[in-house]
Amino acid sequence: MTMKKQDSIVVVASVGLLIYTLALSFLGPALSAIQTNKTFGNQGSVKAIGVGVYWNSNGTNPVSSFNWGMLDPGTTKNITCYIKNEGNNVVTLSMSTSNWNPSNATQFMTLIWNLQGTTVNPGQIRTAKFALTVSASIAGITNFSFDITIIGTS
Length: 154
Fold this sequence. Notes:
This protein is α+β, with helices and mostly antiparallel strands. It has one helix at residues 5-34; strands spanning 41-49, 52-54, 65-67, 76-84, 91-101, 109-113, 119-120, 125-134, 143-153. It has two domains: 1-35; 41-153, Ctag/Cox11 (Pfam 04442), CATH 2.60.370. Helices cover 19% and strands 41% of the residues.
């Protein structure tokens, strides 16, 4: 009995798949044993210019810092707070970060928020959602800190 070329390809592919599956079943536990995850924490200050930053929606519990807690590589942590225009003029919101420690943390971590460029009327309170994303490829950083500045420009 002779095999057709297509039958030979199917046999070779099946044998290859079988070898690959067996290799994974033996190597999988060994590889997972050498994987490591690092978790790290942060306490960063929050500075507000021209606006108030609060934990509650009625603007009575002020924020002085964010505690990002323990973070794993490849994850995003969200924090919600409230921004209040405490002045008499409409303001446009902006946010920046500074004083990253270690300084190379900016290569592996990104902070964004939902209110960049948003206008806020006097006395108005807006919900701010911050998202700190940690790269899956982060290495050599076990602790970090940075400052957040929120500005309301009229």
